[in-house]
Amino acid sequence: MKSYKYIGIWLIALTCLLFSACTSDDDNNDRIATEIEQIDATHVKAEGIIYVFKKDHFEVSSYVKKEIEENAKRSLFSKIRFKEKDYEVTTICRSALNNCVNLSSIYLPNTITKIDSFAFYSCRNLRQCNLPKNLQYLRDGVFTQCNIQVVTVPARVKKIEQHAYSYNEALTSVNIADSVESIGYASFGYCPNITSIKMPASLNYIGKFAFESCYRLQKIEIPENVTSLPYCCFRYCFNLKEATLPAKLKEINAEAFGQCTSLKTIHFKGTKQQWKSISKTGNWNQSCSKELVIECSDGTI
Q1: Are the C-beta atoms of 219 and 241 separated by less than 8 Å?
Q2: How far is the C-alpha of 194 from the C-alpha of 113, rounded, in Å?
Q3: Which of these, 205, 267, 272, 210, lies nearest to 236 by C-alpha position?
């Protein structure tokens, strides 16, 4: 009996140890930079990344190319110790890390609330980058031409701006929090390997080309508050088989489903009369399957 007792105690201790190891890894990712190289009155460098001081906080401003090794993994500091005081890092500036081709993974601390335009543009080998829970702004072109695999947009973001994730060939899955109201022009366009997109109920606007050339996408559901499907928003989604559209839809613009050659079923949540009243540009379904049917709440068209 004693041996069983000792085994039980050992298992409990091991479980606690593993749990503490997991939590400490996450906690250690929010780090304070205490050993920095001061470049001038406002700029400091740590681990090859340059931060700039802005009155009461720091922002990521650029990087030193020769100090970012091949397949580099980086974790941004959440605070910088500067003149004997700790200041939070809150922003990644416009084009700060663009074309950093050696970067493969980067962790962003929860102090980051803004990622500015083109911050990671053309980081072609970047496969992993979390979006911090306190992020409020996701600007245009921020991750264009990267190779990020999964995107989860956090709950404080209201707008995904144009080309935010366009031309990400490795991207397979997109989960958008129920706070986002707008998906901009070509935000996820030309991402050929996306297989699933979860759009939030809060969404009310989709931009032109938003999901163009997402070749492997098979199914989409448009939220209730979206009233317009813009020009080419799902064009060249060759494997799209079914789409669910809201009853509030008022217009479907040219080639919204153009070249969706596998599209056979549209589930429309309104009536047949409502479907007929929707303004449709003549070629909205250009080259769709000849077997395409519209299933309305009161029958099929």
Answers
A1: yes
A2: 26
A3: 210
pLDDT at 20 over 80: no
Residue owning tokens 């911050």: 119
3-state secondary structure 238-287: CCCCEEEECCCCCEECCCCCCCCCCCCEEEECCCHHHHHHCEECCCCCCC
* Beta-strand relationship, 103-107 and 72-75: parallel
Cβ neighbours of 133 (radius 10 Å): 11
Output the six-digit token pair for 67.
Answer: 């100090």
Per DSSP, 23 falls in state: H
Q: List, as one string, the DSSP characters of 181-198.
A: -EE-TTTTTT-TT--EEE
pLDDT digits (tens, 9 = 90+) for 27-51: 446 799 999 999 999 999 999 999 9
> b vs e for 114-129, b when ≥16 Cβ sit within 10 Å of the residue's Cβ?
bbbbbbbbbbebbbeb
Element (H, E) at 22: helix 2-28
Contacts of 218 (CB under 8 A, 6+ apart): 195, 239, 240, 241, 242
Q: Count CB neighbours of 300 within 10 A.
A: 10
Residue 233, beta-bridge partner list: none
Pairing mode, strands 173-176 and 196-198: parallel
Is residue 18 very low, low, confident or very high in pLDDT (cuts 50, 70, 90)? Answer: very low
